[in-house]
Specification:
Two copies of one chain form a homodimer. The first copy, chain A, is an alpha/beta fold and 394 residues long. The first copy, chain A, has helices at residues 7-11, 21-29, 49-63, 74-79, 94-111, 123-126, 131-138, 143-147, 150-157, 164-180, 192-204, 241-249, 256-263, 268-279, 285-299, 302-317, 337-343, 350-358; strands at 17-19, 35-40, 67-72, 117-121, 184-188, 211-215, 327-329, 334-336, 362-364, 367-368, 373-375, 381-384, 388-393. Chain A contains 18 helices and 13 strands.
Chain lengths: 394, 394
């Protein structure tokens, strides 16, 4: 087996569950060319490090000759949430969907090999789906099956409304698998039920049932919740190298090993070494810098990673002023610095500015500000907190 | 109110529930021309006395100037039961549906006024129903709402499968109401949930919600179950006057008042009188004959009713041989009478024939048969039970 693929790298690291592992191993050993299904909802187009876990796994399969089938959920996005209950599901126009899909794919192909990817649009088949097709599809599944799904059973027990439509969406996702004849569907742990419906439906219509490869959820920079854009605890793949470096340096130490394991290619030997270093209470700063570089190299290149590190050392560690800082026009004379800070976007409210000043966190040209009103000279640098700067100009 | 319509006749007798009665009364008093929705499933085309309860009510509304909208469920019939779980829902071809619908309407218009009926075919709207339409429709209703329906909740509790499709069918019936802009939907008690879904959906899409008029279920000739073709306890509207007469005479005495109330126009004064006669243990035979005549007059005419009664008196009461009896060819010599009875269709099994002979229920030319083998003369009349005859010929 080792001749064909690295079992641990492919099916253990960065994998939370495979259904059914023996079947997938057999298909890999037979040298079957697999169609790896990945879907995305074009109502949000941002990819962050949490998504990278799965996309890196797709890439590893591609390196063995397999093909990714990326399904753009354009049909669903153009329907939105007809009940109006979900604010996360706006109705998108055909144009918006196309723009979002383009943005998504630019990020997607930072990690996944474009030359080994087939892009399919859901509307190819759902645009002409008839009521007869719906009846045939819904006749294959029972209410009890769906109510067994964890989130549904909890909501049902709590008396919270579940619309009939919510039972239909997983069937549509399953039908996608039939349409593209998926061999393996990829998804997060939280997608298990829907992925299984696809597997079941394929078997029912006489296709070989897809395997399911689930990837673990990455904890966000706050150290406590799943990384997600709405929680603000994410590192986006389109952020600048400097932003990524800074965010990685801010993650809690106990996430280090997870991040190394799930979103980098450092070897297993190194992983053990790092783990030992953390246990022996070595300074994690060195490891964090390594992690930040590993991530930036994947998304940009080595030069960008080095530059980001240099920038971090200079500004944050040596507290130097960065090369380029934004300018902000001021009036002459004595100014309310909290007002300036708010208008310049350094803080979100005047009370935040006041608090920072009281805590000694605001400097003008390197001198701590002690009271809110101050006569500023043109060209002075205003610093708020550790890394927010603005040059005050005429 | 009495000026406009007879409240008791229209909304009390033969009505089990009206939702909402005050609304319906108000519409009737306003002189609104109502669209009375009645649907039928062309997978079975036979109308029996149980259906007559509702059809007679439609007719009464028509007499006040309202219009029936008969919905032919052709779309649903051509889908059948895609799960294959229901034997009562075969897939019908377009041709079969047309034939069944024609047969149904021939019976339907024995009771309902054809000139005040609009016939609509479900496929007019469901033929072009898209997945988007399905999502919009299913998004309006919750799983909990459907599971609250009595039969669903029982099946769910018992762990019996309910397919998703079964939750969709009531929505389609509701959508029919929207399409034809029904003012009142008619149905049996057992249809209450589905009828309410239609009312709710109309309100959601900005139509005036339909009223619902439910008619009681008629108990079949067995005296214990709802009249239904599959139970064999029915009186079909296409049966001959003789058959109807015979079946009415066979119903249990305690059903008499129900039948008079629900499927005849005898006055309320007569109803009280009949009820008193039954309580005072009068011979119910007279009342049964009256009931049979009332029914036959509606489906045929007075002459047919009289002829059927004469026939009944002659054959059953006076045990005469009917004018026309079927012929059956026999071989010469000693015959096994149970075999003959089975082949001639007088019994369903030889053991039934043997039992009848033992009980003295079989006669040849008026003489009781005492043993199963008998040398029959050509032209002899074989009688089994009270009313089954066959003439044995060369």
């Amino acid at each position: 087996m080792q001749d064909i693929f690295d079992f641990n790298r492919l099916l253990r690291r960065g994998v939370s569950e495979v259904i059914v592992e023996e079947e997938l191993v057999a298909r890999l050993k037979r040298g079957e060319k697999l169609r790896l299904k990945e879907g995305f909802d074009p109502s949000s187009s941002d990819i962050h490090l949490g998504h990278m876990v799965g996309l890196r796994k797709l890439r590893q399969f591609q390196e063995l000759g397999h093909e990714v089938v990326l399904i753009v959920g354009d049909w669903t996005a153009q329907i939105g949430d007809p009940t109006g209950q979900s604010v996360t599901r706006p109705v998108l126009s055909h144009e918006q969907v196309k723009v979002n899909a383009e943005t998504y794919m630019q990020q997607f192909f930072k990690i996944v090999d474009r030359s080994r990817t087939e892009v399919r649009w859901q509307s190819e088949w759902f645009g002409k789906f008839s009521l007869t097709d719906v009846i045939k599809l819904t006749g294959r599944f029972t209410i009890a099956q769906f109510l067994a799904r964890d989130d549904f059973s909890k909501r049902f027990a709590a008396g919270k409304p579940i619309t009939l439509t919510e039972f239909i969406y997983p069937l549509l996702q399953a039908y996608d698998s039939v349409q593209v004849q998926a061999s393996v569907e990829f998804g997060g742990n939280d997608q298990k039920f829907n992925l299984l419906v696809g597997r079941e439906l394929q078997g029912m219509v006489g296709q070989q049932p897809q395997q399911i490869l689930m990837t673990p959820l990455l904890i966000g920079t706050d150290g406590s919740h799943k990384m997600s854009k709405s929680l603000g605890n994410y590192i986006g793949v389109t952020e600048t190298p400097e932003q990524i470096f800074g965010k990685v340096m801010s993650i809690p130490d106990n996430l280090l090993m997870d991040y190394f394991t799930l979103v980098t290619d450092v070897t297993d030997a190194e992983l053990s070494e790092f783990s030992h270093e953390i246990e022996t209470r070595a300074n994690p700063m060195v490891l964090k810098k390594r992690l930040a570089r590993e991530i930036i190299i994947q998304l940009y290149d080595k030069a960008a990673a080095s530059a980001a590190e240099d920038n971090f050392v200079r500004i944050v560690q040596n507290k130097e002023i960065p090369d380029e800082i934004p300018h902000f026009r001021i009036a002459p004379g004595v100014l309310s610095i909290p007002n300036v800070m708010l208008d310049a976007g350094l803080v979100k409210s005047k009370s935040e500015a006041m608090r920072l000043i009281r805590q000694g966190g605001v400097e003008i040209d390197g001198k701590k500000l002690t009271e809110p009103n101050y006569a500023v000279a043109y060209g002075a640098v205003l610093k708020a907190g550790k890394r927010r700067y603005v040059k005050l100009i005429e």
